[in-house]
Each structure stands twice: as C-alpha cells, then as structure tokens.
Amino acid sequence: MTQRFPTPPARGTCMLPTRPSAEARALLALRRSAGKNTLGSPGPAGADLQELLTVAARVPDHRRLEPWRFVTFTGEERAAFGQTIAHIYKADTPDADDACLAMEAGRPLRAPTVICVISSPDLAHKTPVWEQELSAGAVCQNLLLAANAAGWAGVWLTEWIAFHAGIDTALGLTAGERIAGFIYLGTATATPPERPRAPIADKTRAYSDIVSG
Ligand SMILES: Cc1cc2nc3c(=O)[nH]c(=O)nc-3n(C[C@H](O)[C@H](O)[C@H](O)COP(=O)(O)O)c2cc1C
Fold first, then answer.
1. Which of 30, 42, 51, 171 is the most exposed place for a label (fewest CB within 10 A)?
2. Given the CA of residue 35, which atom of ligand 1 is nearest to it?
C-alpha cells in the first residue's frame, strides 16, 4: 500500500480548524467528475481503498451516528454484481434482448473500483433522517474529493440500480437504508471539458432583499 493521507489522528488530538492550501483550493475550484466511460485501470483497491474510505468518512455528522456504510466492488466482484443487475433487469423486462442485458451486466465494469455508498439512518433517533441522509451525501462528495487528491478520477452515479428494491435486497440493505450513490473510481482515460454552470449570484439572495420584497 502507498499511504497517501496522514494517519488518522487519535481521539482528543488538537486539530487545526483551518488548513489554508493552494493545492486544496485548486482541487475544489477545478473539481470535475470523470465521464462514466473514461475510467480505466488501475483503481484503488485493498488498503488503498480502505484509506480512501477512512478519509471520505470524515464528514459532518450530527450526534455522531455515522449513518452510512459502504459496499465495495473490485475485480471479479464487479462482474458478479453485473450479473445480478442483468438478472433483475430481465425479471422486470422479459423481452430485453441480449445486447441490452449485456449493457446492464456491464454497468459495474465501467471502472476498476465501484463503491456503493449506503445511507443508513437510525430511524428512531432524534436527529432527523434528512440530516443523516445529508451526511451520507457528504460522504459521497468527500470520497470523490479524496480520490481526486490521491490521483484517481471518479464519478457519482445512481441510475436505476440505486432505486430498485431487488438491488437493495441483493446488497443487503435493511429498512430505512437507501443507496446514496455508486462512486466509480479509476484512472482517467480522457479529460472532461468544463460544463456550463450558473453564476452563483443567480442562485443567491441576501436576506435583506427577501424582507424588502
Ligand atoms: C446523487 C447524484 C446522482 C447522480 N447520478 C447520475 C447518473 O445516474 N448519471 C449521470 O450521468 N450523472 C449522474 N450524476 C451527475 C454526475 O455525478 C456529475 O456530477 C455530472 O456529470 C456533472 O459533472 P461535475 O460533477 O464535474 O459537475 C449524479 C450526481 C449526483 C449528485
């Protein structure tokens, strides 16, 4: 394993509340997802992947519930999951042709490493489920950023497989759990062009403008 991140600090360690860094600013300001068909080998696996997930899990988390977990797919696991996807698709779409089923089976093969991030809220807890689900979303984004910082390209996809009870069962989800996304990681085989983004002023209002009508 190549250690790419600092060792997780021991509980109680005095932590810096800011960490000014030109590299970190560039990472954030220039972040871009990879195209879903542009992720080649290698991808993170084994201890390297565990390190990435450890960093990804350092998210805001109201009342420390850690309301998320991961299922990882590397190597042959991807093809096995692909067969499950195709099987479920075929059950829903009996007249699907072979090309279509091959496409479904190939979904997890689009990257060497696929991580299913599962939102796993404590439904009975006083922390609202919405907050817990937001924390799972933060894990997805943190995982992408950590991967990019470690040299891996990635993209967060859901597609129909994130919203199907049969897939949930196949992945062992329990009541209240939901798939937050599949994070596909690998080595970039293309450079994505920048995409259109709204000026932030179009998405922002000062409170004084709201109260003055
Ligand atoms: C929850 C979530 C689910 C997504 N699912 C898909 C998807 O299924 N297919 C897809 O093409 N893009 C999906 N995206 C969008 C991509 O991850 C990516 O954000 C988009 O291609 C824009 O690229 P950018 O992240 O560089 O801005 C999803 C994004 C989010 C946040």
1. 30
2. 21
154 in ligand 1 pocket by Cβ < 6 Å?
no
CA angle 170, 173, 174 (to 5 degrees): 135
Where are the chain's structural domains?
Answer: 34-74+111-189
The domain 34-74+111-189 is placed in CATH, from the list 3.40.50.300, 3.40.50.620, 3.40.109.10, 3.30.310.50, at 3.40.109.10
This prediction has a pTM of 0.98
Q: Which of 134, 148, 155, 184 to mutate to test the pocket of ligand 1 (most atoms within 8 A of CB)?
A: 155
Q: What is the pLDDT along the chain (213 residues), one digit of tens a residue?
A: 899 999 999 999 999 999 999 999 999 999 999 999 999 999 999 999 999 999 999 999 999 999 999 999 999 999 999 999 999 999 999 999 999 999 999 999 999 999 999 999 999 999 999 999 999 999 999 999 999 999 999 999 999 999 999 999 999 999 999 999 999 999 999 999 999 999 999 999 999 999 997
